[in-house]
Amino acid sequence: MKNSFHLFLIVLISVVGISEVCAQELKLSGLQEKIESLVPPAVNDTTPGLVIGVVHNGELIFKKGYGMANLSYGIPNNTEMIYNLGSVSKQFLGYAFAMLQAEGKLNVDDPVGKYLDDWPEFDQEVTIRHLLTHTSGYREAYTISNLAGRIVEVDRLSREECLEVVRRQPELEFEPGSRYSYNSTAWVILAEILEEATGQSADEWVKVQIFDPLGMDHTYIESFVGEVMPNAAESYFHDPNRGYGNSKSNRAIFGAADICSSIDDMSLWLAHFQTQVVGNEAIMNDFLTPYTLTDGTNSEYGFGIQNRIHKGLKLYSHTGGHESFATQLRYYPEHDLGIITVSNYGGRGWIPTNQIAEYVLEEFMTFPEEVEHKPFKISSKVLKRYAGLYISPTRNSTNELELKNDTLTIWGGTQLIPISENRFYSNTWGGQFELIEVKGQPTQLIIHGDSKSSYTKVEDWTPSKADLEAYVSDYYSAEIEAIYHMVIKDDQLVIEHRWLGEMALTPVTKDLFRSDWGMFVEFTRSPSGKILGFNLSSGRTLNVFFKRRE
Hints:
single chain; alpha+beta; Beta-lactamase; Lipocalin; eight-stranded antiparallel barrel; 24% helix; 28% strand; globular
């Protein structure tokens, strides 16, 4: 009797467990209505728009185009047309390297210089793995090109010029493996390495070894700027004064981007995450495993693809932008659900794919509960002490805390609500803000979100006319072979360049300025105080030095 009772309990528990699992299903009813509620209002039957596909268990369960693929000939967007994927292209080359490693054709922990002639050696070794995971410390060619006066969408940028950027780089921007810094130049270098390792062009290798076996017959790799491809959509921007225009590319350098594909073909790629028609589980694991930085931080990035958690579910994802194409790819392996969308209208055709996933996977996701924080009162004296401008350790980004009506704000108006003497939260953003004060040291701002970032408070500085005049001179960068003229216009320091035009500078703190292009200029001085030059930094490039000319 006792054994029978135990058997009954086991069966009961099993049935209950199965019932609970069965009760949790993908929410597919109303999917089209949900998607169409998210289509931007700027998209209609007379504008450019987007295409979108939802893949489940290897099948396209939803696919549709919105808006026009070609305004000149009135051709609507549809999922069989091809669109430039931008940086979503990186994952194909990343998977290629996982395959080549499995075949013994190369080792991703080999130094880059093993495969390339006339390649610079720096103080620290840079490996193929560093290139694949955006942790190399190499310069970013697109930024450097712009600084030199070569404008994206106007001037051509060749593969050799991208490689030359690293050859001319005086030192690494950071120790390899210590930071994640998105870098498309690395992928140009990877294409060169693949060709050296296989004796075959990178685009041909990827086509033969990946596209063809997967049946991706309508996926192409752009081999030169302006190449005509069958059934290709155009991309557009809109100027309120001049109307629509075609965005143009200044490069066709496979590796970083330049794959054109359809939603139908991309569904085959998403299905491959489960089927592994090409390669095997070990190769897929190498491809997907995120890199761990030297301080132990998970970079959440594998070989050309993000690997992170979205509301409790594993997510592989990437975005891409090229010309006015804007691409998103999401894949949830635990439920074999993929979402791929491409806008040919830039940001105007951007659709929040995370909300599509949260609709379909609602039963499986963990939505954080609203946390009720007890009211905490901080004196206005302390809040005034916290207010001010804070700069990142790399001195290329800032955050400002402003005091408005006895409330600290950030990002142009987001209120910081105190929960302790030095910690705040936002009721419109999920993270928290921490202020750390140590006697004799500048205040630290720590922003706790999906990752942690720190900023240091800087002293306010309003330069006098004499202060500004001390900077006036010509400055030359041997690295990018460019001359910048530092002048004063309307009591403001301004950089002039022959092709770039004018770049106004706003003081941040002594000797540090922020440009209206989002770049930072920091002047260097000798021990006696003489201005020697300046370092120019942007979001992706650090410390391009310009020497003062006497």
